[in-house]
Amino acid sequence: MKLLFAIRGFGILTLFFLIIACKNGTSVNKKALNPEIALLEEKVQEIKKDFNVPGLAVGIIKEGKIIYSKGLGVQDLDTRFLLSTQSVYHMASVSKPFVATAIMQLMEQGKIELDKKLIEYLPYFKMKDNRFKEITIRHLLTHSSGIPDVKDYQWDNPQNDDGAVERYVKSFKSKELDFTPGDEYHYSNSAYDILADIIAKVSRMTFEDYMKKNIFEPVGMNNTTFYKPGVSKKLATQPHTLNNNLKIDVETVYPYNRIHAASSTLHSNIDDMLLWAKVNLNKGRIGKHRIYNESSYKLLTSGQRKISENDSLALSWFISPIKDYKMIKHSGGDTGYSTYFGFIPENNSAIVLMANNDIFFNSDVANCLLNIALFNENKSVRVPIHYVLKDYILTDGIEKCKEIYFDKKKNASSEYNFEIWTLNQFGYWLVENKHYQKALQVFQFNLYLFPNHPGLMDSLADAYRDMGDKKNAIKWYKKALNIKPDQEFSKEKLNELIKN
Q1: How far apart are CA 339 and CA 273, in angstroms?
Q2: Could you read off the pLDDT of 160-170 as tens digits, one per residue?
Q3: How far apart are CA 192 and CA 149, in angstroms?
Q4: Residue 336 · residue 255 · CB < 8 Å
Q5: I want to staple 173 with a disulfide (CB 3.0 to 4.6 A). Which of 8, 126, 391, 405 is the partner?
Q6: How many whole angstroms separate alpha carbon 346 and alpha carbon 312?
Q7: 281: Cβ–Cβ under 8 A, 6 or more apart, which residues?
Q8: Does position 341 have pLDDT exceeding 50, yes or no?
Q9: Are the C-beta atoms of residues 238 and 355 closer than 8 Å to each other?
Q10: Are strands 383-384 and 416-417 parallel, antiparallel or unpaired?
Q11: How far apart are the first and last CA of the chain?
């Protein structure tokens, strides 16, 4: 009966062919049924190809209804298991709003106060800088604590026992604050990792168990966890990065370490994250369960700090405009993964993106797909030009890359992104894979295009430094500083080289 209503008006012959197609497992022509979905499908396929994504999962809610939910490609390039909406991804920093939600729950229970000091909950937290005593829970949630960000996640040497996060918290005793708590905004994964220990101590459960019992189970997120060993092997995706030949390949090191549980280790899938979207669009309620109160929703999603002309920060969430609406969002990126989650309360819409590589433009892609789904605007994501050049640099050399660069810029400038950072990132890809001479050529080409740019001179110096050419590294750091004497990162690297 539902099938008949869905295709009413197509006629008996259309119905016959539709039934035959379904029986044979072949896909139905979506364009004939729904032009909007067909365009979304076409754009997702295009984006997957342009950004070399082995497996791209997308979920979109429009005006309260799921209009698109699909996994395209494979879970990993080794097994070639097909992706589905149940395939589980490492979600990276999309973890953080879940942490903030847990803090709201504990606040509602009277166990946490946002403006109480961190040390009231974790008396053993200490730093060399005595200003640490002024850090509050709100500071941690709004990246204004002054606690320095993580420099090495130690994915290759993880600590995965129950005591890992407490040991991490105690390790700050030798560190200093970057600024006085509350004075500035500096994104800090470390601050969220400390929140995991607060949640554990206040709830008297491990962080991972608290999240499962109080958020995932009530919501019905059955394949979501902060505990990687709990992920089904059949559903697990694998991270992909650029290998030594600048081709996308399975990464051997998986981004999981319990000391960074709260900032980075959420694992989930499209089906579950669309349930999470409904929780937030319904201001904390799903079915018969209320995950947090409406007052907590307002606090979670109200701007706490302005971070740019158009963007502000709430409690974990970032807030940006999209058309005449307010997008509440968080993106994520770690070794081999790129993710995005955002929702628009005013029109009851949301989007979830998961890519199992880390060269994916999550925010740009989200805006592109939402423009199609919500506003009927077919805009493409401009592909960074170095995504094309990377396939030629090692085999055909820099001259071929220059030829392609100028040809693409002349013939299809709107299709590609030629901004200054594109070739710079290209050069660093080459440095990371120890193709130093090629990197030098790319950085020199960028300086040819953007002469006397102190940042590009610093990048060229980095390449010389990493290949062991101290003399030329010092020379180019100095050139950068001659143009911009207050370029602190060049000063620091130059002083480090001279000392050694």
Answers
A1: 11
A2: 999 999 999 99
A3: 10
A4: yes
A5: 126
A6: 17
A7: 61, 64, 343, 345, 348, 349, 350
A8: yes
A9: no
A10: parallel
A11: 78
Q: What six digits make up the tokens of 328?
A: 């509440």
Q: Cα torsion at 469, 474, 475, 477 (round to 10°)?
A: 120
Helices within 56-179 (DSSP H only) = 96-108, 118-121, 137-141, 164-170
Q: Strands 55-62, 349-355: parallel, antiparallel or unpaired by DSSP?
A: antiparallel
Torsion of CA 63, 320, 424, 51, to 10 degrees: -10
Mean of pLDDT values over 183-208: 98
What CA–CA distance (Å, rounded) separates 142 from 30? 43
Whether the CB-CB separation of 129 and 176 falls below 8 Å is answered with yes
Match 């055909």 to its residue by tokens.
396
Q: Taking the complete model, does pTM exceed 0.85, yes or no?
A: yes
Token pair listed for 99: 């942490």
3-state SS, 419-448, equals CHHHHHHHHHHHHHCCCHHHHHHHHHHHHH
Q: To the nearest 5 percent, what fractions of the chain are helix, strand and coil?
A: 50, 15, 35
Separation between Cα atoms, residue 296 and residue 292, nearest integer Å: 6
Q: Residue 79: its pLDDT value, please?
A: 96
- At 387-433, the pLDDT tens digits run 999 999 999 999 999 999 999 998 755 689 999 999 999 999 999 99
Mean pLDDT for 282-309 is 96
Cα angle: 117, vertex 135, 201; to 5 degrees:
50
**What kind and span of H or E run contains 458?**
helix 454-466
The DSSP code for 55 is E
DSSP per position, 343-411: EEGGGTEEEEEEESSSS--HHHHHHHHHHHHHH----PPPEETHHHHTTTTTTTHHHHHHHHHHHHHHH
> How many whole angstroms separate alpha carbon 47 and alpha carbon 56?
9
